[in-house]
Amino acid sequence: MSKYELPFDIDMAWCPGCGNFQIRKSILSALDELGQVHQTDVVFVSGIGQAAKMPQYLNVNYFNGLHGRALPVALAVKAANPSLTVIAEGGDGDMYGEGGNHFLHNIRRNIDITHIVHNNMVYGLTKGQASPTSQPGMKTGVQVNGVVNEPFNPLAVAISLGASFVARAYSGEIEQTKDLIKMAVNHKGYAMIDVLHPCVSFNKVNTFKWYEENTYKIETHDETNRSKAWELAIKPGKLGLGVYYKNEGGKTFTDSLSCYQKDRSPLYKRKRNQKKLAELIHSWI
Q1: Taking a C-beta distance cutoff of 8 angstroms, is the pair 171, 121 a contact?
Q2: What are the structural domains, with CATH classification, of the chain?
Q3: pLDDT per residue over 57-73, tens digit each?
Q4: What are the C-alpha distances in Å from 121 to residues 133, 185, 272?
Q5: pTM of the model
Q6: Can you tell me the distance from the alpha carbon of 274 to that of 268, in angstroms, rounded to the nearest whole number?
Q7: 70-80 and 274-284 are packed helices; what angle lies between their axes, rounded to 10 degrees?
Q8: In which element (H, E) is residue 39 found?
């Protein structure tokens, strides 16, 4: 049993067969294999939604906040204590819809966190409306004539804004997803993983079978070439699984803060800075 599993039985709200179970398995394995990461130093931050319930099913520190507002909280946690391993997690609606503005601007800040997005191409918590990543033509109880908008492309957006680590996974590929999570956690800077997975209750189009037929593992690709990464992200057809872009050694948000230039100790331990910290966090949120 993983030390990151809760030491008691839990009643999970996910539907039987939901891809979130597989993502949870990948996260547990990744955290277990990251030997340099101490359990007490791991903090998960999430918003609202089925994916955002993930931290409640793990034996970790977590902050479960408002819909679409996981990233500013994750930024504040990392700024207050840069030694923590911070993981922001939520669904495609939570992160790309309600939280889309925070998604854009925290890429620019290059905050040193891991950003895991459960992308099932539908709003699962609120009974199946189209999400930012729903495919054209998909019919829902709200989009009765089918989705007419082109889906949001989070990988292309992240790469174009200079995100320092961008990857895509599929929940059915548990081992690859685990490995990508480990890479993201070990990466210094903002690291996003867009994790494709089925919603067995409300998305009857993008099923396990659909993902098996419409994804492939990226075999040969220069992960350091930003232009090639962007071309791969916008390439029509099947969806590639793996690392799209990686830029090591860049300055992170906390590196640029004057309060950490001479003293790397957490701000909350410095009494003289507690008022300043509160003001900074308020301005970021």
Answers
A1: no
A2: 19-284 (3.40.50.970)
A3: 999 999 998 898 999 99
A4: 5, 25, 47
A5: 0.92
A6: 6
A7: 160
A8: none
